[in-house]
Write a structure and sequence with these properties.
Layout (H helix, E strand, L loop, with lengths): L2 E5 L6 E7 L9 H12 L7 H4 L4 E5 L1 E2 L2 E2 L4 E6 L34 H8 L5 H7 L4 H16 L4 E9 L2 E2 L6 H8 L11 H16 L6 E8 L15 H10 L4 E6 L2 H5 L3 H4 L3 E4 L4 E4 L7 E2 L2 E2 L4 E7 L10 E3 L6 E3 L10 H24 L4 H15 L3
Antiparallel strand pairs: 1-2, 2-6, 3-6, 4-5, 7-8, 7-9, 9-15, 10-15, 11-12, 13-14, 16-17
Helix pairs in contact: 1-5, 1-11, 5-11, 8-11
Length: about 400
Amino acid sequence: MLRFETAGESHGECLVATLVGLPAGVPVSLEAVNRELWRRQQGYGRGGRMKIETDQAGIVSGVRHSKTIGSPVALIIRNQDWKNWSEALPVEDAEGAWENKKPVTRPRPGHADLPGIIKYDFRDARYVLERASARETAARVAVGALAKAFLAGFGIQVLSHAVAVGGVRLERAAAWEEIVALSQKDEVLLGCVDPETEARMKEQVDQAYRSGDTVGGVFEVVARGVPPGLGSYISWDTRLDGRLAQAIVSIPAVKGVEIGAAAEGAASFGSKVQDTIHYDKSQRRFWRGANRAGGVEGGMTNGEMIVVRGLLKPISTLRRPLESVDLETREPALAAYERSDVCVVPAAGVIGEAMTAMVIAQAMIEKFGGDSLGETKRNFDGYLAQVREY
């Protein structure tokens, strides 16, 4: 089974990720991993932290001579900001260390601060926000790059784009070629395929910045080349749409998920929603008249592109803080301010790619097995031959 874990805090020494279950023989490029980390840091409206960090991953196990060897892969991403926090957050306590801790005693509405201190019996939110911070997602993007490398061996690609920022929305479908071109850009504004819409999105970010506010939006992740039959209908936790939804909502600030045209379908009649079924005799394959299901029917992939959207709330940390309560006095107070972003929609899309790639890679390995990439490919090819018999 393919699984990963991350460790590390926002201002700690480093982020760590381990990935277990990747077959041997998967080509790994550190340049490709670091490109994904770079993409996560881009976008108009990012905060000052992006000027400090230049994320680069180091692989310390599981890869030799640019290929996986079947053992757990371990990655490390150093935090450049650690030098400014080493005295405030030392591993071992020392004289004066507690006074340097930079406590957070005015919890931020919408953040993990208050529920976290109650749960873990802390007296301030510093330890909570250090781990709850979206900084952790850099480690997810690094392991997601390895999942993408595995999927590439089967012709599967996973990319994203921005559908909405604030009240501005892309009012048309994005072509796959547009999404690919967007991913190859070396300058990222807001990750929208349409320049005119992107310019209006930028105005939303500017407005939020001027007023000390933040702005959310919607990102869309598209997976192309996914075969039919991944996932299952036999139990609730094997349904691929459920697993995709959990993966996307696990991203900090994502409060909702949509697969395919879910919202539109909820307001329509069944005859307008279901994707009609057709058969191409020359290609010996079934195809759908549309893809409103987002590539998943009955908890299984149907061979169409997987389309999943994340609904991202505005970031919780505001330069113009909201009402809160001081934990020490229990008196009304304005919430604390930690350096933060104004808009993170494009970055959230890259994180969404990583999580989607991981779910699809897990489903691929569950179905086709294999201790080496060659073995998995043989099983995959045999399955495709079976599919073509229908």
